[in-house]
Amino acid sequence: MQNAECRMQNWRQWLFAFCILHSAFLLTACRKEPAPSVRRGEQLLTQYGCVSCHDIPGVKGAHGMVGPPLAKMALRQTIAGKFQNTPENMQKWLQNPQAMDPANAMPNLGVTPEDARDMTAFLSTLK
Fold first, then answer.
1. How distant is the alpha carbon of residue 85 from its chain centre?
2. 38-123 — its CATH code?
3. Cα Rg, the chain, nearest whole Å
4. Which tens digit of pLDDT belongs to each residue from 41-88?
């Protein structure tokens, strides 16, 4: 009888552990990042002050003459003439341009990863 009780106890413990692990897996799998927001990205270009240095089509007041114009940014092969124009590289560039190229004039504005993702989404519409 003790053997049967011991097996039943082991089975319950195994089932409990399985349920906990399965729940953790489901919670992780269901936690998706929201899709990048083009509209929010456009707003962030003003919020971070990008409009002060860049001419950006479609962004109100973005007529800066210090940095390069961002027209047709989505069609360009490179970022800053050095890095392949991919969403990943653009996000890295926006977050910390000095880390990618210490000799460039663009300052580190403290752009968060989420903001860089949305800004990149907007920039990818400039064709």
1. 15
2. 2.60.40.420
3. 24
4. 999 999 999 999 999 998 988 999 999 999 999 999 999 999 999 999
Which amino acid would we find at residue 50? C
Concatenating the DSSP letter of every residue in 27-82 gives HHHH-PPPPP-HHHHHHHHHHTTHHHH-B-TTSTT-B-SSSPP-TTGGG-SEETTT
Instruction: Using a pLDDT cut of 70, give the percent of the chain over it.
Output: 76
| pLDDT range class, residue 8, cuts 50, 70, 90 | low
Task: Specify the residue for token string 């800066």.
Answer: 64
Locus of tokens 């083009």: 38
pTM, two decimals, is 0.74
3-state SS record for 67-104:
CCCCCCHHHCCEECCCEECCHHHHHHHHHCHHHHCCCC
Beta strands 78-79 and 83-84, pairing class: antiparallel
